[in-house]
């Protein structure tokens, strides 16, 4: 069984206020992308990264698409041998080997098309209408904040990605595409520490956590 990591790394870094793609911003002494690739490479048979044009280095760094899921599709096309795809955002540099292995084990042992890392929601979540009026308070005991890695049987993910560009652009994660295609997805509990770097504050927090983790490894 061939396990391939797919890393969409096409974010512009605009919200970080940097002059380069977000995945290439230096974080704790290394490009942000390298933290994720190191962990995935310790578990996967191969790691394919979808990058902005000009940063590609075939065969494992390919040009990404116009959206995140289009980049995932480009990465998967470059890995026809994949039986299992481990999709992970380059903007989540605090991924751990343990989390990847638990997701893979859950996929292997369960009857599901995908397994996604997620953290239980701890805040009270309210639904509001367009005017800001609260419509209802949701039961947070059933809610999960979705992260990556998201691990899929590659055939199910390939089928889910066979949609038009507009549908790909609207997708906030690949699990939603698998669900829309009739697939089943399960969650594996993760930690809020597996944060997504979006703002300068996220960057500072991630750097601090990585520096604290360094002596312990990944």
Summarize the structure.
The chain has helices at about 30-40, 70-75, 95-110, 155-160, 165-170, 175-180, 200-215, and strands spanning about 5-10, 25, 30, 45-50, 60-65, 85, 115-120, 125-130, 135, 145-155, 185-190. The chain has about 220 residues and is α/β, with parallel strands linked by helices.
Biggest β-sheet description: 7 strands, mixed
The sequence of SSEs as H and E is EEEHEEHEHEEEEHHHEH
Strand order in the largest sheet: 5-4-1-6-10-7-11
Write down the overall geometry.
Answer: globular
In whole angstroms, the N-to-C terminal distance is: 24 Å
Helix content: 25-40%
Low-confidence stretches: none
Quick one: CATH class?
A: Alpha Beta
- Annotation, overall tally of beta strands: 11
What does this structure look like?
This protein has 218 residues and is of the alpha/beta class. Helices cover 31% and strands 24% of the residues. It has helices at residues 32-41, 68-77, 97-109, 154-160, 165-170, 174-180, 200-213, and strands spanning 3-8, 26-27, 30-31, 46-51, 61-63, 84-87, 114-120, 126-128, 134-137, 144-153, 185-189. It has a 7-stranded mixed β-sheet with strand order 5-4-1-6-10-7-11, with helices on both faces. Strand 2 (26-27) and strand 3 form a beta hairpin. Helix 4 (154-160) packs across helix 6. The relative contact order is 0.18. The model has no long low-confidence stretch (mean pLDDT 94).
């Amino acid at each position: 069984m061939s396990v391939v990591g797919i890393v969409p790394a096409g974010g512009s870094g605009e919200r970080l206020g940097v002059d380069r793609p977000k995945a290439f911003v230096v974080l704790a002494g290394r490009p942000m992308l390298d933290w994720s690739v190191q962990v995935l490479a310790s578990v996967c048979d191969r790691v394919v990264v979808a990058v902005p044009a000009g940063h590609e280095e075939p065969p494992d760094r390919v040009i990404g698409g116009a959206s995140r899921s289009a980049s995932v599709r480009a990465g998967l096309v470059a890995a026809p041998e994949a039986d299992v795809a481990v999709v992970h955002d380059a903007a989540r540099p605090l991924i751990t080997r343990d989390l990847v292995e638990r997701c893979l084990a859950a996929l292997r042992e369960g009857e599901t098309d995908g397994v996604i890392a997620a953290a239980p929601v701890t805040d009270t979540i309210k639904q509001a209408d367009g005017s800001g009026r609260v419509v209802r308070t949701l039961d947070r005991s059933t809610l999960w904040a979705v992260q990556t890695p998201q691990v899929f049987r590659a055939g199910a993910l390939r089928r889910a990605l066979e949609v038009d560009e507009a549908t790909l652009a609207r997708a906030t994660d690949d699990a939603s595409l698998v669900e829309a295609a009739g697939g089943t997805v399960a969650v594996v509990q993760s930690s809020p520490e597996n944060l997504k770097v979006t703002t300068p504050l996220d960057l500072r927090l991630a750097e601090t956590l990585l520096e604290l983790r360094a002596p312990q490894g990944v």
